């Protein structure tokens, strides 16, 4: 309860910041994009993990305001990279299912992109399986509008939950993120390895790109390359980093 009040205050004071984690094209090793990850550091220096404050925000009706703040920060960052002459990467923002239940989620996003002068091609939304809760038609309409705007849509944590395959058929997505649990197990567990192989193959047959998240070892990386997985993300490749460190990565890429 006290946490909820503190979180509301932190959102209002714009104390929720973003860290950026690179996504790497596995065939070339080049930067393919970044994921924006929300960070909350209390005045006493304690970092509250997003795995705590995102669900808290969802329970307490704060995810709308938090989501707006995250989006605004991400778009301002893209603008700043462009203004600084850096090669702005596609930025993937996590988008909670509850954000679809608000009034006009698509118009809200379109206005925010306009306000920052950010082209939709530089924005990606990472969606989770919980998307299927609530009114499917409303979600579907929003997804189509996002697509029409030119925003990339991806399914996060693919393979977990209960309806992943239904998503592929019904939603206009471009990108699958293979859940970390399969990636971490793949070098030691044959079935995890075969599941990853099948997801990669299925993604390609459906004309989707795929990315493996949570890559921590060279063995995992080599297996994923051999399978033809398009992109990778994980501590082995790069950790989430503050904006200034990301500036340096982008500058080095010039
Ligand atoms: O940043 P990791 O370091 O701990 O993130 C933990 C979880 O929080 C992940 O599932 C991630 O998708 C989610 N998350 C991080 N930032 C955001 C955000 O801005 N919005 C939403 N909805 N989820 C986020
Ligand atoms: O659910 P989502 O995929 O958005 O989660 C992103 C989370 O995964 C972030 O908390 C990020 O810090 C974390 N993460 C990124 N790379 C790795 C990794 O290689 N290993 C582990 N354990 N977590 C990672
Ligand atoms: Na994510
Ligand atoms: Mn994920």
From TrEMBL:
Residue ranges occupied by any EAL domain in the UniProt entry: 1-254
Annotated source species: Rhodoferax koreensis
Name used for this protein in its record: Diguanylate cyclase
Complete-protein stretch covered: 320 to 573 of 609
